[in-house]
Write a structure and sequence with these properties.
Strand order of the largest sheet: 2-3-10-9-8-4-6-7
Number of helices: 8
Order of helices and strands: EHEHHEHEEHHEHEEEEH
Shape: globular
Helix content: 25-40%
Distance between the termini: 39 Å
Length: 326
């Protein structure tokens, strides 16, 4: 059984339109064993060294963009682009949408919004998140990253941890999701990529799953049991369970935030704001932040998240002391 923290203070480590999607009936448990194998092949690949998207203008909080951080950011985007080309079971349309709506806009902007119907935007936003997780796993394996703190801040526990690796409990999901292959695959793929990250050891990697009070009570029995197994799984040493005292998480803060420090001291923030699959409303707005913490919009996001989490009973030092709470 993994040891859990004695307290809740973590210490520093030493609308657009589109053609309708094809939908097919899904069994109660969806399994794609070749997806697991395919993602494993992508993870072993060579590292690169060299819907509608709304761009939100914003400047630096102070000083200029760090050249090292910007080079690190651009190299990571190139690597995600390379992963997208090898992504198993992804259709060309989704691959191109990720390129056009996420990767290319983030090359020149630290903050973007992807807006539109959930059935069209979720595959883009979440598959992009999974590709980032895969790229980060590869960098950790190649010792190109000094430390990573990933915080998943959602009303219910992290969705991929509530389903088995390479499988999805389709009956536990909303009907619109379980009958939509593209959205179903976003969950299935992240059951692999997130577990791959959590298999990394502390202090180099830590994944904090922070969920609101009563969050597990909203899960199906199969999901709750699987989440409890994941928390107790010794093969996931980087996973930390941190239930919040808050009754809910504000919609604008629902998502995930990752703070990555490179071996040269470069610090990059990768953050996503969006709703969990249970709240997949017809219209969706996804926000991505990707860049150094000195960027005004990124700093503001970290400050708001830090303030909320502290009010909800936990302190994450990597978020604190970065400006006044908003």
């Amino acid at each position: 059984m993994k040891q859990k923290p004695d307290n809740k203070i973590l210490k520093e480590p030493s609308e657009g339109t589109e053609e309708g999607t094809k939908t097919v009936p899904a069994p109660s448990v969806v399994s794609r064993r070749h997806v697991v194998a395919g993602l494993s092949v992508v993870m072993a690949g060579t590292l690169l060294t060299g819907c509608g998207t709304l761009i939100q203008p914003g400047g630096m909080a102070s000083g200029e963009v760090s050249t090292a951080e910007e080079a690190w950011r651009q190299s990571l985007l190139r690597e995600i682009h390379d992963i997208a080309r090898q992504w198993p079971e992804m259709d060309d349309r989704t691959r191109q949408q990720i390129e056009d709506q996420a990767i290319n806009p983030l090359r020149d902007n630290e903050h973007i919004l992807i807006a539109g119907l959930d059935q069209y935007t979720r595959p883009v936003a979440i598959e992009f998140q999974a590709m980032f997780e895969l790229a980060l796993s590869r960098r950790l394996q190649h010792s190109l990253v000094k430390s990573v703190t990933l915080i998943i801040h959602t009303d219910r526990p992290a969705t991929p941890l509530c389903h088995p690796k390479g499988q999805v409990f389709a009956d536990a999901l909303p009907e619109a999701i379980r009958n939509d292959t593209r959205r179903l695959m976003t969950i299935l793929n992240r059951t692999v990529t997130l577990r791959s990250l959590c298999s990394m050891a502390q202090p180099e990697f830590r994944c904090i799953t922070a969920w609101s009070r009563g969050g597990t009570g909203q899960l199906a029995a199969t999901e709750r049991k699987m989440f409890e197994q994941a928390i107790a799984d010794n093969s996931l040493p980087g996973l930390i369970n941190m239930p919040l005292e808050a009754a809910s998480i504000p919609p604008e803060l629902s998502g995930a935030t990752c703070i990555v420090t490179g071996q040269g001291g470069e610090e990059i923030v990768f953050a996503l704001n969006g709703q969990q699959v249970w709240n997949s409303e017809r219209n969706a707005v996804w926000q991505y932040w990707f860049g150094g913490r000195r960027h005004e919009r990124i700093n503001r996001h970290l400050s708001r998240l830090d303030h909320f989490l502290q009010q909800a009973g936990i302190t994450v030092p990597q978020l604190g002391g970065r400006g006044p709470a908003v």
